[in-house]
Write a structure and sequence with these properties.
disordered C terminus; 11 strands; three-stranded antiparallel beta sheet; alpha+beta; disordered N terminus; about 280 residues; single chain
Length: about 280
């Protein structure tokens, strides 16, 4: 999904006064998205899911939000290029699941707040509109702009690759990585993630990880995942994610190659040729 970074109604508000939400916690943002009045929405960009952008207002505070209500399932999805994917899903539920997983992994500085809410009679995800966006990753590459801190950039990219393998993300396009003016990278739009497959989509993508993220991955318990994400994921999708977690941790610790743990072969994904809209992981 191609996303415009500042739409006119919100831009006027932000230019007129300091951003009162700049130091809000994730909990404050959640409550705002759940309770604020939703203004007139318009299409968010060039994506095929017809997602929308809207200005939300509560007690005089105004902020932008990204709204998605798509919830599609196909037993076999065939792409125009001849590729295909079994048990294809494209669902707003995965946006909320991705955010809740990010909370468990202490990655709320890289995945925007997302809540579940009924909008115009449709169950939807409402995501916090990322502030101070400088460009997306496609624009950075097209313009050959080098990050000012190469080491910090590599750490963020390593985190993104681990997260995407964990959730089996089928759509990490360059437009779905937003870069702020402080060179923080935000992962958006996770509607094609959380496949049930127990194998990693690309084991070679797992190379490095911060100690904090590795610790959080190892601490991740299925019971807590069910409590936090079970409303939005099936048992099979949770089982697949936990199996992938084991493969990721084992590879990072040198106990496996991403396809097996200590010689143990994980269950086959059966997805022999999958469709990806992205150019990455």
């Amino acid at each position: 999904m191609r996303r415009t970074f500042l739409f006119a109604a919100l831009a006027g508000v932000l230019l007129a006064q300091p951003n009162p939400t700049a130091n809000w916690s994730s909990t404050q943002k959640e409550q705002f998205l759940l309770t604020a009045d939703i203004g007139q929405a318009e299409l968010a960009g060039k994506g095929i899911t017809k997602s929308e952008k809207a200005v939300l207002t509560l007690n005089g505070v105004t902020h932008g939000a990204h709204i998605q209500s798509i919830d599609v399932y196909q037993p076999l999805f065939k792409g125009k290029d001849g590729s295909q994917e079994q048990d294809f899903k494209d669902s707003w539920k995965f946006n909320v699941a991705a955010y809740r997983l990010a909370k468990l992994l202490n990655l709320t500085n890289m995945v925007p707040v997302s809540v579940s809410r009924v909008v115009e009679g449709k169950a939807s995800s409402i995501d916090w509109w990322v502030d101070d966006v400088l460009m997306d990753e496609r624009e950075r590459i097209d313009k050959n702009i080098a990050p000012p801190d190469a080491a910090r950039w590599r750490t963020q990219m390593d985190t993104i690759r681990v997260f995407d393998q964990l959730i089996y993300n089928m759509d990490r396009s360059q437009e779905n990585l937003l870069i702020t003016k402080n060179w923080d990278v935000w992962m958006i739009d996770h509607t094609r993630a959380f496949r049930k497959w127990t194998a990693l989509r690309n084991p070679a993508a797992i190379t490095h990880c911060t100690p904090d993220l590795l610790h959080a991955l190892k601490k991740l318990q299925r019971g807590e995942v069910v409590r936090q994400l079970g409303e939005f994921l099936t048992d099979a999708e949770i089982d697949g994610m936990m199996a992938r977690r084991d493969l990721i941790v084992a590879k990072l610790e040198g106990r496996g190659d991403g396809t097996s743990v200590s010689g143990r072969q994980p269950a086959s994904s059966t997805a022999t040729k999958t469709l990806s809209k992205s150019a990455g992981h």
